[in-house]
Amino acid sequence: MGLQKDTDVDRKQHGKWYDDACGAAFAMELIGERWALPVIRELMLGGRRFSDIRASLPGISAKVLTERLASLEAVGIVTRTTLPAPTPAKLYVLTPWGLALEPVMQELGRWSVQSPEHDPQLPLTPVSLMLSFRTMLDRDAARGMEATVRFEVGADRFDAELSGAELRIMRAPPERAAADLVFRAAKGIAYLRAFYGKQPLDAPGLALEVEGARALAERFIACFHLPAKRPPPPDKQA
């Protein structure tokens, strides 16, 4: 009887969609609502203001963003904090449990881009681009390589360190610290063409600026690959 009572109480949250004890199904109840994963993604490299999140996700309305942040906060994935003076601002931040979603999202990313339906030409936010680098790093190719890297994507700045076949990335201040390589582009598409499309750095029309040794930049770029595409379903094959 006690088990039945506890289950009834828990259904206020758990089981609201599927009435199923499966952990994967419950995960979708927690993060499966429309826009929930993109919101989590935009917080993965640090806390952000409401206005910053909405600017990164122009397709989301203020109402929906408010609802998603509230629901993610209610289940313990997101929390709020306030920056100290002189520029106090309310930030939304992932909790440690929320940050633990990164490996899950990486596996989803590696799995999903194998679909022939995935379009890499669609817009990609700067944070999403940085997380893609962490996801698509070929650790065998990166083994033994060490480099500090500055990524500039429009007004966004990120500092990265490649060491021990791991790529650590964090948001950076506008003033630039010393780095072995600096990559600069107005939009993420230029990075995609070089890092995943493997266009040469001197290819005509490639709007990606590079500072640093060309050989090091080429070796660094060679450490990133998208998984091979799966063949399309038989009814879509030419």
UniProtKB/TrEMBL annotation:
KW Cell inner membrane (keyword) present: no
Gene3D superfamilies listed in its UniProt record: Winged helix-like DNA-binding domain superfamily/Winged helix DNA-binding domain
Domain HTH hxlR-type: 22-120
Recorded superkingdom: Bacteria
SUPFAM superfamilies: Winged helix' DNA-binding domain
Entry keywords, A to Z: DNA-binding, Transcription, Transcription regulation
UniProt xrefs under InterPro entries: HTH_HxlR, WH-like_DNA-bd_sf, WH_DNA-bd_sf
PROSITE patterns attached to this UniProt entry: HTH_HXLR
Name of the protein: DNA-binding HxlR family transcriptional regulator
